[in-house]
Amino acid sequence: MDSDTARPASNPIIHMGQRETNRYDGFISITNEVQGGPLIREVMVGAMLAGYRVLGFDLETTGLNPRSDRIVQYALIGSDVDGSHINQTALVNPRRSIPPESSRVHGITDEDVKGENDFSEHLPELIKLISDAVIVGHNVSRFDWRFLELECMRAGFEVPVPRAIIDTLTLARKLRIPGRHALGSLCARYDINIARAHRADADAGATLLLLWSMMQSHPKEFRGGLDELQDMLSGNLGNSGRLGPSLVDLEPVDDTNGRLRHSDQGIVIAFGKHKGRTLQELQKIDKRYLDWLSSPSSPISSNTVSELLRNQRE
Fold this sequence. Notes:
Layout (H helix, E strand, L loop, with lengths): L12 E6 L5 E11 L2 E8 L9 E8 L9 E9 L5 E7 L8 H7 L3 H4 L9 H8 L3 E4 L2 H16 L8 E4 H7 L8 H7 L10 H18 L8 H9 L25 E4 L2 E4 L9 H7 L1 H7 L8 H12 L1
Parallel strand pairs: 4-7, 7-8
Antiparallel strand pairs: 1-2, 2-3, 4-5, 5-6, 9-10
């Protein structure tokens, strides 16, 4: 993210917390330690996210390919369901050299990660935080989440199942916000300036601020609940009376805890990054995710998914 702030800042602390009333009401408090003391700013995000663990998520990597590249830094910044602050960020040893072109982007070099732990050693805590949380990130569905999925598979961990994934890149496109939709461009549009751009902690915090800014500028689109927002982002099934029935109105598939549901278009996924898509669609656009859904590490019985896929082909 491009930043034109003139004030030096250390690690930005961004969270959603409690006011003096000790009542969690969904606001983000951003603290940048600057010369002369902390600069604190609070922004309301409304009731839609209140009561959830909400985390900005970002990764820095050795490159752009989730299969051949590795993570060098991660950040989860936000708040827990009780409003307590979460700031989980660390450098990671990728066990390979970081290309100079990647270091020029995020500023992380081989020397910086020398002696750091493997990403797999961080996974138990990350999985615990991400599970059932609202994950916010920019291009998170196509980039960060794919890296996380593959790292979980390599290490033998089940991929965590968040309550929702809010991709601010997809959201900007759905809202038809004018101009470029790169994180830096959108932050500039909304006067969001956080130092240390292209570091995971700064970018994770920026996505939370960006989400709030878009909620303020497009209030109509955020009057519903979290499920309605997920429906809008999926682009397949929307609110009742607009794009058909909401996912929560659809009949759950047996033995899936509501994660798969019956619709006129077929069996619909009701969780995760492909929420709102049918199994038939996934066979065309993301067979790797479908393979994971049919594997023992899936939160759904692999036998159930395999049987549903067989029935679709018959």
